[in-house]
Amino acid sequence: MKVLQINCVYDSGSTGKITADLHREYQKNGIDSIVCYGRLGKTADKGVYKTCGELYSRFNHFMANLSGIQFGGCFFSTNKLIRVIKKEKPDIVHLQCINGHFVNIYRLVNWLKKNNIKTVLTLHAEFMFTGGCGYSYDCEKFKTGCGNCPQIKKGVPTYLFDNTARAFRKMKKAFDGFDKNLVVTSVSPWLMKRAKSSLILGDKRHTVVENGLDETVFCPSYDKSLRDKYAKDNQKIVFYATPYFSDAVNNAKGGKYLVELARKFEGEDVRFLVAGDYDKNLTVPDNMILLGRINNQKELAGFYSIADVTVITSRRETFSMICAESLCCGTPVCGFFAGGPETIALPEFSKFVDFGDVDLLCKAVKESLGEKSPDISDKARKRYKRENMSRTMIDVYKSLLKEFADD
């Protein structure tokens, strides 16, 4: 079997690491694995192609914002990607997270359909069945057709026009008739339910393949010296991880709620540690420490391990690697109902409350501060280990190939 994955990035960020993990697992299992990606730096890994230059991507990003059509353009980089597919002749093309202005999604999907190429589409967000937004939140226009977008200029960047209706039609046209050779996998049951109710993907075949992680990295790794650096012996640690920490009202990761939560713990023996980039002028409570970005996964696992609870305050998540990583390190999770996290978490070690209710979140955190247990990590690592993800995905490939052979 030969599989060619396509993702925006490689071995960077959540989907980039997932793509790289699958690539390496496939190679270990004797599968001929190829990866194409478009953004960030080059890699020396075998079988991996970078198909788009950064300047070209930025130009296409500007043009997309000018036109309001987020996933078009990219003429030359899409040509290069299609040439790689033709050269490699994979049995399966696996589309991961392909936004990022490195490929014309409408053109690529239409080309795969017309050339009868067996394709797996993994949904990490919602943009493949909307008019351009990654998270539609409470809007359900994806069920009937987008237009007059309530998130224009925020969820769907554009300088001038609301072209979400046109973008929706273009995506629907690309997927119309793409049935026999397509399987849609979602990273959580919640996301699959949304996709199955959409006008674009509703009539396709769907299944859930949860994200996996390296359980040899995300495991209990308690370091007393690290803990002593940030908390006294009698203090509890609440950990929070995000790409960018902000207390802005419209921030999708809900940083302002963490600030409110920390203020409720002022005067108590609780410290809040925040991993992620942040504005240097940001003012936070005295019991909160901003760590900055943590790129090293083992270092990140160390912070999960010294924490007593991890908090997630996002408005919407389709999966939540933070939830899985924390549980694998033996640390319980508290957060808001956000879609994906509550459907993939271990319920006996996780507590979720209504979005924005900081009082209920505070209560959940207090109840969880003494609940660390080796059982958390044992159960979580069995569920989220990357071998599960790769094995389940290989079964999806085999099913698609077998069906094609039977026909």
Task: Provide a concise account of the structure shown.
With 407 residues, the protein is an alpha/beta fold. It has helices at residues 13-28, 54-67, 75-88, 105-114, 164-175, 189-196, 224-230, 255-264, 297-306, 321-328, 341-344, 358-368, 374-384, 386-406; strands at 2-7, 32-37, 48-50, 92-95, 119-123, 182-186, 205-208, 236-245, 270-278, 288-292, 309-312, 333-336, 350-353. It has 2 domains: 2-212 and 386-406, Rossmann fold (3-Layer(aba) Sandwich), CATH 3.40.50.2000; 224-383, Rossmann fold, CATH 3.40.50.
Keyword list:
Rossmann fold; 6-stranded parallel beta sheet; globular; alpha/beta; 407 residues; 2 domains; 13 strands
Oligomerization state of this entry? Answer: single chain
Radius of gyration: 22 Å
CATH topology of the largest domain, anyone? Answer: Rossmann fold
CATH C-level class of the largest domain: Alpha Beta
**What number of structural domains do the residues give?**
2
One letter per element, helices H and strands E, the order comes to EHEEHHEHEHEHEHEHEEHEHEHEHHH
Sheet/helix structural class: alpha/beta
Mean pLDDT: 93
Low-pLDDT ranges: none
End-to-end distance: 18 Å
Note the main sheet.
7 strands, parallel
Give the second-level CATH assignment, the architecture of the largest domain.
3-Layer(aba) Sandwich
Query: Strand content of the residues, in percent?
Result: 15-25%
Helix content: 25-40%
Spatial ordering of strands, largest sheet: 3-2-1-4-5-6-7
The global form is globular
The CATH superfamily name of the largest domain is Glycogen Phosphorylase B
